[in-house]
Records
---
Amino acid sequence: MVTLTIDGQKVTVPANSTVLEAAEAAGIHIPTLCYLKDVSQTGSCRVCVVEIGGRLQASCVFPVSEGMEVKTNTPLVRESRRTTVELLLSNHPQECLTCLRNQNCELQRLAQELNIREMRFEGARSDFPIDASSPSIVRDPNKCILCGDCVRVCSEVQGIGVLDFVNRGSEAEVSPAFGKKLAEVDCVNCGQCASVCPTGALVVRSEIQDVFKAIYDPEKVVVAQIAPAVRVAIGEEFGLKPGEVAMGQMVASLKKMGFNKVYDTSFAADLTVLEETHEFLERVQKGERLPQFT
Ligand code: FES
């Protein structure tokens, strides 16, 4: 364990902690942007800077040491954080009102937190094509701030690794290899990149308009099918405890929205089990090839 001082407060933490972790343990908030828990840290955005010995250091990667003195909110720190975010905003598309991430955007939240009320810098805007090839993810590199969160979660958490940094300087972007589209690579459409993206650069494709169009089409019988994970995951979005089952509420809501039928995916799973059992018995009785794969 080591003891350091953060904003005049003594805090004792394990020796392998970062300054950010020590500040968290002391209940002191440091804003972050590229920091993502449980993956490798790159310290690339510099939003989390703090003052240590008169110098600015990225707290998310800077290790603690005995007797260290950290200041998290000096004029130098605040000015540095503001300038960093202002520079990120300088070439960011000003589309907040129509962006899918509006009010759920880390960059927007930071600009608010750092009280940025005017655009001091006007940077050259990128003009990358939008990749809407995937059935589930839409990628807009123009909104990317190159934090690398999607790159790390795709390779380190999901073990897929279809995204990485390409090119340099103002040409730099996060992309599948060789300028391919997401639909042309081994993306498994898990959505983890979109869930960690702090801006609207990677978002889950919205089908809301198509769904309502179908619901209000008198010629159509519209069926919702609920996958097993959703009945638990959706509750958090509506303020339920993580892991709480929201099946009843979900079925009621879907019916109220106008779906004609609501099915549980496991209904089909049950049918599959029956079919497989029949096939398996048949194979055993006839001495056919085994094993049988589902
Ligand atoms: Fe620490 Fe980005 S959050 S450098």
---
Amino acid sequence: MRGQETRGFQSEVKQLLHLMIHSLYSNKEIFLRELISNASDATDKLRFRALSIPELYEGDGTLRVRLSCNKKTRTLTISDNGIGMSREEVIENLGTIAKSGTKAFLESMSSDQVKDRQLIGQFGVGFYSAFIVADKVTVRTRLAGTLVENGVFWESIGEGDYKIADITKETRGTEITLYLRAGEDEYLDDWRLRSVISKYSDHIALPVEIESKKDKDNSIIWERINKAQALWTRNKKDITEQEYKEFYKHITHDFNDPCIWTLNRVEGKQQYTSLLYIPSQAKWDMWNRDHKHGLKLYVQHVLIMDHAEHFMPNYLRFVCGIIDSNDLPLNISREVLQDNSVTQNMRSAMTKRVLQMLEKLATNDNESYQKFWNQFGLVFKEGPAEDNGNQKAIAKLLRFTSTFRDNSTQNVSLEEYINRMIKNQEKIYYITADSYTAAKSSPHLELFRKKKIEVLLLSDRIDEWMINHLTEYEGKSFQSVSKTDETLNQFTDTSEKQKASEQKFETFINRVKTLLGERVKDVRLTYRLTDSPAVVITSSDEMSTQMAKLFASVGQKAPEVKYIFELNPEHALIKQVSELSNKEEFSEWIYLFWDQALLAERGSLEDPNQFIRRVNNLLSI
Ligand code: ADP
């Protein structure tokens, strides 16, 4: 062999191989699905490139993958006549893992095997899964359209390194030979192979053939095992649930079943088929900046593009599946897709489909919907800002924590909230805070708890932004409980008692105003508190505390929030302090209330040490 060399695997590959062999032992047969899936991708790639360079077929346009066994050498060989690989590609593809964030992901896996099995399942082990059943793997491959002497040989025992060399290979494509580990002889058995193939490969368009029996003249007969018709082109009523699931696993490399799916054929001005899935688990790299959309674009059954992000808005980026269009040209590029009216129409129709599918799930199977929400709610919350046109449908699907359930699970819908609104309540009340605990113990909730008015507790970073884009739901507007709100007066005790307090505390309020000066927008009495002495609120035209924090967290300067300082005349401490004549003592107390209110509102103080000193001083009087 020419150009032979030994190269080390990238450290991530070594880690993956180790984890995989130790965590996937109970589901070994999936290696066949992974390898057949790769062969199918390789033939898709060839078909696509041959659209512009037909010579790549090298005179053989019948694409297929073949499996053959040799009982003497205890080997199983999977060979395709797809695109194949060059030497550089072999080094890149079979020696490294290019997915960004892999290192951190693999390191995050503990030795807890059950958990790892699920995690590694979402990661997609692909080619390396061959080592689950084989202790040596060889690959012979040649890139379509290159000379026969440009073949490449690759061999590894799945530990630290691999061998690579140049060889002569007559046929294009890739041939992978697995030297089975002791005890894995079942994969040499004809019936076992047939059953695994039909289980995993019925839905893919590529014929999967198995070496059947030698003819009299000793020539080999290949028998097709799978249906070899792309799943989405089949009659809907003939497709089983299992086939939908397997197809999902084929396109996503996810080991878990999908949560829900929808297959639609659109015939009319535009003609296309879409098969859209929602996974049951968020992909490990969903939050990476270069996370790729999981939609594949086919044009007239030819795979044109993986990760076709143009067909789904960002807040639905977890949707996976395929679109097969009859209208787009075969040579369409990403740039052209971008501002193409066909694309726009399909995107808008498919967005609606996904929202409808979710609504159906929420109505029919609350438990599954809750699982969906726990996995993808955070992404979905980008919806109101991104997709104004579907705001109503999106709002219906949102789930919140609220004071009604008093636990941190986001499981309250707006519909439920509205059904529980009390008499004369016109608005949907919410609070935003840094954490669920901070939200639920905020002094702003005191009146609401007393009057049994439900409040949505929002504490995801995105919530403030989301709620600002939600204008209304079923005619009800959204109101922050930390902002001024005239309609609340009807729930407070605006009686003679209040008038009396206003008079009695007038001087007190004026003294506080003089003391705090420019720091505050206004000082006034409040009837919204039951337990706290004071609270700060923002006026409805000002930026909220959470929004200001959001600005600060991305390094932008937000205008300073000026609060209205409200004091509770029913509180014993306020009553006492209002009668203090000693200026210094009075000031210490007022600043203490002020800092307390700021702390409750913002979660931090500019000068916490001064606050501590003040508390200690007052405690030691
Ligand atoms: P993935 O398929 O998720 O990218 P794999 O580890 O299965 O990861 O494969 C890595 C890469 O190796 C593939 O992306 C592909 O480029 C290449 N590859 C694997 N199998 C084949 C094959 N049968 N023919 C051509 N290329 C292949």
---
Amino acid sequence: MSGVPVEESLDYRRLLDAAAAAARATTGQGRVADYIPALAAADPEAFGMAVATVDGELYGVGDWERPFSIQSVSKLFSLALALAHGGDGVWGGVGREPSGNPFNSLVQLETEHGIPRNPFINAGALVVTDRLQSLTGDAAGAVREFLRRESGNPLLDTDPAVAASEAEHGHRNAALAHFIASHGNLQNPVETVLDHYYAHCAIAASCRDLVLAGSFLARYGVRADGTRLMTRSEAKRVNAVLLTCGTYDAAGEFAFRVGLPGKSGVGGGILAILPGRAAVCAWGPRLDQAGNSVAAVAALDALTTLSGCSIF
Ligand code: GLN
């Protein structure tokens, strides 16, 4: 044993097969989200996983080309685009500390004067959506267009039934938005912010689409066409916040098991970044208590454990 377990180049096909086997071993664990009724229709046994390397190779296993509701995975893109358009100003209205509370919690907002802890809990994502709306005039459209361009999938779109279902059952998000507005931390009307937030959360995309769209973070801010979306320093910062806050109050456990920056969503997707190497996305609709996919965490855990390749 050399004591240096990291291989120079990874055999992604073999790793994906092993990761899929680890995901299959979780069959039956966790529950499909149903607080947004349209999400309850997801196939609980579906599983897919994809890898896009920084040199343009693409690998997939299982249902990797099947679209699902990306939900909070969209928050990675809304933050990246807000930073790309507006620079550091975004950080004036949202923090960068783990919340230690559920993703839809209201409690900290009261004591912390309407400044959400981080951009990946719902409160923080509402502020980011608001800033992206001010910067672009169409926050959801900006996220959708970016995903379409990077994935090369012109059919990628918001699922209007999911967006409507979110809006109909969105009392908690509406409460968060009104509370933030009462502290003067929204620039646009609450209704506008909520509409755009629901519309980007309700985008349907596959693991394939998401790894292609997320690979700019593996390239330290550079898109597939070679242009720069953000500075290397900003990409480092987004990855840092993904690591510490991207999987809500399970971010510590996710770092412990997977060791990568990652963003989860209640549709069951998790997009993770191997900086300098690849973007990886796993999807399975059954969620644990924190709202993270049981199968996707198991698959990503297997991938980094077997390859010895994480950020640590
Ligand atoms: N749109 C969802 C919500 O607002 C996103 C939550 C999530 O994926 N964690 O509740």
